[in-house]
Amino acid sequence: MTESRFTQIMNEELHNLPQIKVFQNRALAGLKIIAKYLPAAGVEGADHDVIYSVDVNEIVKAGITEEDAIQLRQLNWMIDDGYLAKFV
Fold it and tell me: How many separate domains does the chain show?
């Protein structure tokens, strides 16, 4: 997948994606997906109500699949200043 396609997925409106049931914290579920590709990754920074994880370029280079990118978006993850981020 290209960084352009990943960005396109992450900018998709949530109502355009199929809804998924999540039985755990959405932030934790997203971090688990990220860890599949970058095992040493985690929360790299935090702001008032946002956590930041990996650089978008890193996860694309690590080979994230389109399916996992879509799932991250369904979990309400986003791109903020070039990093994967999640409101908490």
Answer: 1
Identity of residue 33: I
Helix, strand or coil, per DSSP, at residue 81: coil
Q: Which pLDDT tens digit goes with each residue over 12-25?
A: 887 777 677 766 78
Q: Which residue has the tokens 């694309």?
A: 60
Torsions phi, psi for 4 (to 5 deg): -65, -45
Phi, psi for 85 (deg, rounded to 5): -140, 160
Q: Which domain holds residue 53?
A: 3-87
CA–CA dist 19, 1 (Å, integer): 23
Contact yes or no for 11/79 (Cβ under 8 A): yes
Dihedral sign (CA 61, 66, 71, 75) = positive
- Global pTM reads 0.84
Amino acid letter, 64: I
Give strand ranges (E) for 1-88: 45-46, 50-55, 78-80, 83-87
